[in-house]
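Suppose a classmate hands you a notebook page containing two proteins, each written out with its sequence and a corresponding row of structure tokens. How would you begin to make sense of it? This section walks through that situation. The first entry is reproduced here exactly as it would appear on such a page.
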Amino acid sequence: MDTFRLAQATDLGMTRAQVYRRVRRGELVRVARGLYRAATAAPADHDLVEVAARRPDAVICLTSALSLHELIDDIPDALDVAIPRPSRAPATHSAIRWHLFDRACFAVGRGEYQVPGTDLTLGLYSPERSIVDALRLRGRQGYETGPAALREWLRRGGRPADLLAVAQQIPRAAGPVRTALEYLA
């Protein structure tokens, strides 16, 4: 187990003092409050590790998902993560933007993403779902992000019917998607 919580360490017989001593000696790395990782573990993105450890039901969304799918050139300044409404976003050490999405459509387009260098998994929205969200939340995400991602997705062979099928499952999404498709056609 490369990544663990302090509570898990105490369950395995290690005291808090032993964990803290191992951090001081460099045997463990403190990822965030109460979250530790072996110093010999493979390199990993600590933001993703923290999210996967704190909220296993979380999903990478919006600009972060579009960037992971290589549909936009932007490098997000914070990790965009969705959790089902009405959840409470956990306190985190990393640069994470928490978004509350409707529970009824939370699973639409959700896939699994293996956090590189760890045995942890995290949800990741599909390219179609990420584009639909960028278009429907264009007031918060920026008016250029959704159309730029859509243009790249279409260039790669994406089918508008697939995008519309996802948009039909999400409230208030079909209109902006149709408008963007008509504009690019």
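The notebook's second entry, a different protein, reads as follows.
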Amino acid sequence: MLGSSRNWQTAGRDLASSNHVFALDARNHGQSPHDDAMTYDAMATDTLAWLDAQGLSRVTLMGHSMGGKTAMLLACRHPERVAQLIVVDIGPKDYHWGSRPAEFDAMNALDVASLKSRTEAEKFMEGSVKDWVMRKFFATNLERLDDGRWRWVINLPALTAAIHTLEKNQLGPDDQFLGPTQFVIGAKSAYTSPEDHALIRRHFPSVQIDTLASSGHNPHMEVRDEFVTITQSFLSTARG
């Protein structure tokens, strides 16, 4: 959520040394179309439609955070399309973000019409978003137009309205993917814990769970070399 394929360019380049890599923007993010519907079913359907358009019948599917929830759902409902599954720092469970996360309040309150720079936007968000890295991350969703004005690249109204939908567990109790699966967890992240491992194994019985000690929620950026090495190792083993 609030990320884009741009956040994956460096890790994607590294993974492309031995894989054919595609990096997709979810709907209402990056360069993908905007739509009022913002559900995991819709995003999984989008991904399947993209695979069909590219003539890709079966792929290794990797998803991070919201993308990881989408990837889990697609793999469980359409296992014939997924050879291997990699889920990055998210679990098959409900999340509870309160009435509305502070970062959404800050982004909705930003007066984009009078904005002069991303730095100005970051400074505005200081009171609500304490982590400067996250402020910069959110500000990457601002785009400067040819006339000097700024706009949100994301569909902020649709994402704000969908928060409670997106925080829910997308899997049913009987959903399973039996193929080779890797969960890559950041030890410093609050998104998963060792208590989630039994639940992960219930839905993904062929899972390998790897925890990266120095990483938070974004191991593909925070500890990129380690992340690439551990995912490449999994794929090498899974492919025999």
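A careful reader of the second entry would note: The chain has two domains: 5-95+168-238, 102-153.
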